[in-house]
Amino acid sequence: MAELRKFRTEELKARSGELHCGDKILVTGTVYTARDAAHKRFAALLDEGKELPIPLEGAVIYYAGPTPAPEGRPIGSCGPTTSGRMDRFAPRLLDLGLGGMIGKGERSQEVRDAVVRNKAVYLCAVGGAGALACNCIKSCEVIAFEDLGCESVKKLYVEDFPLIVADDCYGGDIFSSGRAEYCTAE
């Protein structure tokens, strides 16, 4: 098995050329959680010409809605949500400087094109393993839309968070290539 390469979140966009569809990596640094409701508010703020509550340039958004933290922990279970629900918002955010996204599931062609156009990356976390993923999260701070509860925007610090490159800046897509390799038409 190949050694897992380590990346800092703030370097992901600049080093996206080193990442290829199917690569398994460990990520350390700041990620922001944002799901459907937060993305709708992001769009409204942008439409009004206002700033977002997160710095977009090179940022990484994790599509997750963590559960409350048990005593002595920074966060509860924190697994990925289905990324496709954010597809209508993602190209705009990528065009404004977003460096990467973490979630689960296939993305639309528009998102894949925006990943290539902006030399960004889409990473998949293991769905159903939120209780294990939370062990990589060392801090959690609500930074926007507290009224959304678990869907509020949170700033997380992760260490050695295991991810798979799903869409790379060359147009590689793990879902398309996986179907081509493992599915046969009858």
Automatic annotation (TrEMBL):
Alphabetically ordered keywords of this record: Lyase
Pfam family name, one: Fumerase_C
Coiled coil: none
Segments forming domain Fe-S hydro-lyase tartrate dehydratase beta-type catalytic: 10-177
Gene3D superfamilies membership: Fe-S hydro-lyase, tartrate dehydratase beta-type, catalytic domain
InterPro entries with a match to the protein in the record: Fe-S_hydro-lyase_TtdB-typ_cat, Fe-S_hydroAse_TtdB_cat_sf
Keyword Lyase in record: yes
GO molecular function, one term: hydro-lyase activity
Superkingdom of origin organism: Bacteria
Family: Belongs to the class-I fumarase family.
PANTHER family: L(+)-TARTRATE DEHYDRATASE SUBUNIT BETA, L(+)-TARTRATE DEHYDRATASE SUBUNIT BETA-RELATED
Name the record gives this protein: Fumarate hydratase
